[in-house]
Amino acid sequence: MTKKKLKIGILFGGKSAEHEVSLISAKNVINALDKNKYEAFPIKIKKSGKFNLDVFKKVDVIFPVLHGPYGEDGSMQGLLKIFNLPFVGPSVLGSAVSMDKDMMKRLLKEAEIPIGKFITLKIGEKISFEKVKKTLGLPIFIKPANMGSSVGINKVKNEKEFKAGIKDAFQYDTKIVIEEFINGREIECGVLGNEHPLASVPGEIIANQEFYSYNAKYIDDGYIIEIPAKISEKTTKKIKELAVRVFEVLGCEGMGRVDFFVKKNGEVIVNEINTIPGFTSISMYPKLWEASGLPLAKLLDKLINLAIERFKKEQKLKTTVE
After folding, report:
1. Which residues 6+ apart lie within 8 Å of 42 measured at CB?
2. In this structure, are residues 71 and 22 in contact, taking their beta carbons and an 8 Å threshold?
3. What ranges in 170-272 are assigned the alpha helix state H?
């Protein structure tokens, strides 16, 4: 008797500036799924936010391949919980706090995880260039609080760029973060698991542009990837431990990619976590796990199983009081 194939709903697109990246990631996931085990149901979310909800009734598990707002920020995760569907990746809380760079940094700081200095600015609030310069030094990075793929991010060296950077970041969010520039190598580490997460081998992004921008990531081939990263055993161990710690502190499950800076003196600083990392053919998360002995098809297997495992545990929880 042939085993019934699991129906996997691949959610992609979305109402986000990262819509196009999501399309490429989703295509890659669909192609890599083991056709003997799974039947893929592509569910495209238009830029308007509209999509066919009827598909939800046909699937066993949802695999959100949505990057940025309305997909990676807890809103879609909340909808999937209401529909009582198992889904890949963190739940509502882990997704929401990890997406919001301000909340994420506050939680990491409270947990005494090393992060860079930052200032948060809400729409309507003002701050002088001089004050920022005094607090964070120069150059600085200005970013929307809730955005990924380096969208709306500017590296700023003077007052004119500062004003333009703030204006640009506020196009994408009502809250922005201004961060100190950390001169260090960019190291990334994948995390996989629910209660007992594991870290992948770390990899290094060597950008040959000003910084690892959206163009560098997806358009210009403006970087080189080195996996595993050429770092000491001691630094590798520290990065893997910190990656798991960040994942746990932020209440993540399933998957995450933690990004670090490693300074010349060996100091390791956490930059951020990405809870739905890219799954394009050039994306770091699948490449890191492949180098750790888990090729893409097996990685997808694991992620789907983790989603089902969490769902089964949640189903056992009481929802009524006798």
Report:
1. 10, 12, 26, 30
2. yes
3. 214-218, 233-249
CATH topology of domain 6-88: Rossmann fold (3.40.50)
CA distance 171 to 310: 37
pLDDT in tens, 295-317: 999 999 999 999 999 999 999 99
- Among all residues, which ones are annotated catalytic? 18, 149, 218, 257, 259, 272, 274, 278
CA proximity to 190, closest of 278, 130, 110, 117: 278
- Per-residue exposure over 98-107, b if at least 16 CB sit within 10 Å of its own CB, e if not: bbbbbbbbeb
C-alpha dist (Å) from residue 320 to 91, 141, 316, 317: 22, 48, 12, 9
| Structural fold of domain 118-180 | Dna Ligase; domain 1 (3.30.1490)
Say which amino acid occupies 27: K
- Residue that is written with structure tokens 């976590």 in the block: 273
65 residue type, one letter: V
131 touches 104 (CB < 8 A):
no
Q: What is the CA radius of gyration of the chain?
A: 20
Domain extents in the chain:
6-88, 97-111+183-306, 118-180
Beta bridge partners of residue 269, listed in sequence order = 261
pLDDT digits (tens, 9 = 90+) for 176-233: 999 999 999 999 999 999 999 999 999 999 977 665 555 545 555 668 899 999 999 9
Q: What secondary structure does DSSP assign to 292-315, as a single string?
A: TT--HHHHHHHHHHHHHHHHHHHH
Assign 14 to helix, strand or coil.
coil
> CATH assignment of 97-111+183-306?
3.30.470.20
**Residue 221: left (phi > 0), alpha (psi -120 to 50), or beta?**
left
Euclidean distance between CA atoms 136 and 113, whole angstroms: 19
